[in-house]
Structure formats: structure tokens, C-alpha cells
Amino acid sequence: MMNIDSETIRRVAHLARLDFDPQSEAEMLHDMNRFLEYAAMLDELDISGIEPLIYMNEDPGRLRDDQVRQEISHSDALKNAPRSDSDYFRVPKVIEQRE
Known about the structure:
Blueprint: H1 6-15, H2 22-43, H3 74-79
């Protein structure tokens, strides 16, 4: 069975842009290893005669036909924007490079 170590937690946290204190890191390590233990238990089940589940119910869903409608004009949509130019909403940059 695979185990997750502290270094893996730190790498995943870095990729997800998460910041853990040592206590939270220890809790996350414990929880993720418990999840892997549970997944390993599922591997022990005999599912040889079970068909894969495609839909949760017999009705796969009914889709309506797409209809193009003009609900609100472009200029009306931009009227309530705090900042806009002739065609677009203007918003502050929210993505920053972290090390």
C-alpha cells in the first residue's frame, strides 16, 4: 500500500497554493493516509460480475434544444460594471506568481 509522507504533503500544498501550519500538515497527512487505506480496502472487493455504473438512474437526462435569445444587450450588461471599456468588464489582476 502507498503511504503519503510530509514531503508529498508540502509538494501538493505548493501546487495547490495552500499554506499549512505544522498542526494542519500533520492532520492532512493523517487524513490522506486514511483515505488511501480505505481505497486499498475497496481493491479487495470481488467485482467480477458487476457492470460499470454509467448513470445513477435509468434516465440519462433529457436536454432541451439550445435557443439563441438576446436576454440583455451588451451595453446594458456593462452599465452596472464598476469599470469597463467599450467591450469588456475591467477587473483587477488576481493571479500572482508565488515562489
